[in-house]
Write a structure and sequence with these properties.
37% of the residues lie in helices and 13% in strands. It has 15 helices and ten strands.
Length: 337
């Protein structure tokens, strides 16, 4: 199921006197210090793979400091793994995934490359019930649902996206990660690893305010990072149980928990409820209803029980959206208050 694995691991990482792998940067004299050599693996999936399409949900805006697509088409990700910070570079060459990783989390990231790219997904269990959904699926044979195995890195930006425009949420994520995270290991100096739980907990109130994050969302993030271990434990649970655990934290509801497990678990049925736009898009695409609410969306997607998130994603990828009849959500910049 996971395809052919060619380990090709290079364990030649040079380590400093404190036992840590050097991360590049500059030597005391100001001379750029070369990044440590990466660990690597090669993996050939037994299905068509569209790398940007699969990994796209992890990108929080075009200037996300944890995610970048380079001009050669390679995808770069910076993550905080259970073993420490790590940077992963993925490139698709002739049907084979070339993976390179740096940092303390390199081995952890490389081991999970197949799952990240959809090896645990089972799209063959999905049966289209609408012509539009079938056509969307046919046009994108390389679509699979990713699984990161990490909860907080999807939970925190999802909290930041509550009740605000995407531009506001992306700006908050960008400022907080760049301001309080750390440079990612490896050669790409533009990437940053998101802060660890203790750092999130220590961000002063005015920094949240400067990033445009109101007290409610900031408090939700703080409550989540105080039980970070319990949050990350949810990665090993079935999606429904994981969502229930996340929702025990005040401020985390069905919308946020679904947005999280879609990425951390690759959950095919974790449909986003309470979204401002999704019900109307699904309603319009499948039934011509521009005023559909969550209840109408659930009725339309009932034939896809067990696969409702996949069905909704294929609807979104179809490009069939209702014409706009009202102004966009008003942007409120609390940093100017």
């Amino acid at each position: 199921m996971a395809g052919r694995f060619e380990p090709g691991m290079r364990r030649t990482t040079v380590r400093g006197g404190d036992g840590r792998a050097p991360r590049g940067g500059r030597a005391p004299g100001g001379v750029p210090r070369p990044a440590a050599p990466p660990r690597s693996r090669r993996w050939t999936p037994p299905w068509p793979l569209d790398l940007p399409l699969v990994l796209g949900p992890l990108r929080r805006g075009p200037a996300d400091p944890t995610f970048r697509i380079s001009p050669d088409g390679a995808v770069w990700r910076a993550s905080r793994t259970p073993e420490g910070p790590g940077t992963l570079r993925l490139a698709l060459r002739g049907g084979t995934v070339e993976a390179d990783a740096w940092g303390e989390g390199a081995d952890w990231l490389l081991e999970r490359v197949p799952e990240l790219l959809g090896a645990a997904d089972a799209p063959e269990e999905f049966t289209p019930r609408h012509r539009l959904v079938a056509a969307s699926r046919h046009r994108r044979p390389g679509l699979r649902l990713l699984r990161t195995g990490l909860v907080l890195e999807s939970l925190i930006p999802s909290v930041l996206e509550q009740k605000v425009t995407t531009d506001e949420a992306y700006r908050a994520w960008r400022l907080l990660v760049r301001g309080h995270g750390e440079p990612a290991p490896g050669p790409d100096s533009r990437l940053h690893v998101m802060p660890g739980p203790r750092t999130w907990a220590g961000i002063p109130s005015w920094e949240w305010h400067r990033a445009g994050v109101d007290d409610k969302r900031a408090s939700t993030v703080l409550r989540a990072v105080r039980v970070a271990h319990r949050m990350e434990e949810a990665a090993s649970m079935p999606p429904a149980e994981a969502m229930a655990r996340l929702e025990r934290v005040p401020g985390i509801g069905p919308w946020t928990s679904a947005e999280t497990v879609q990425r951390s678990h690759g959950a095919p049925d974790a449909l986003t409820l309470g979204d401002l736009h999704l019900p109307r898009i699904v309603g319009y695409a499948l039934a011509g209803d521009r005023d559909a609410d969550d209840a109408a969306m659930l009725d339309l997607l009932e034939p896809y029980a067990g696969q409702r998130h996949r069905a909704a994603r294929l609807v979104l990828l179809s490009g069939r959206t209702p014409p706009r009849r009202e102004p966009k959500m008003r942007r409120v910049d609390i940093a100017r208050w």
